[in-house]
Amino acid sequence: MKFVFLNDTGRIVYPHPACFTHGCLGSESPIQHLEERTFILPEGSYPSVKLWDYGEEKGLQILISPCIEED
Question: Residue 26: in which H helix or E strand, if any?
Answer without folding.
Answer: none
